[in-house]
Design brief:
Number of strands: 6
Distance between the termini: 60 Å
Number of helices: 1
Strand content: 15-25%
Oligomer: single chain
Shape: elongated
Structural class: mainly beta
Helix content: under 10%
Mean pLDDT: 84
Order of helices and strands: EEEEEHE
Low-confidence stretches: none
Length: 103
């Protein structure tokens, strides 16, 4: 039983960081999936792949795995550089502009 501890990346469709601050513990699949011959659905006999635990910190996730004897691998998150502009989009509508604004 091998688990993976990681911090999920932010959604690609949003610029916010919601649900990307928690740490996730997921189990790696122990058996491969199969295709049901009657319906064509994908199935598996491994029930652990449905378990997804969320933790507030990386230390909590590691402590949980160690106390229960779960072997794990951890991956460090790739941090993106924050985009900080002096005034950004609000500059387009500022009342104290020094130059004329045209398209």
């Amino acid at each position: 039983m091998l688990a993976r501890i990681y911090q999920p990346s932010p959604s690609a469709t949003q610029s916010g960081t919601a649900r990307s601050r928690c740490w996730i513990l997921e189990f790696e699949p122990e058996s491969s999936s199969f295709i049901d011959p009657l319906m064509g659905w994908t199935g598996t006999a491994d029930m652990r792949n449905q378990v997804r635990l969320e933790f507030a910190t990386r230390k909590d996730a590691i402590d949980y795995a160690r106390t229960r004897g779960i072997a794990f691998t951890e991956s460090n998150p790739n941090r993106r550089k924050p985009v900080i502009r002096k005034r950004g989009y609000a500059e387009n509508f500022a009342v104290d502009r020094r130059e004329s604004w045209t398209h």
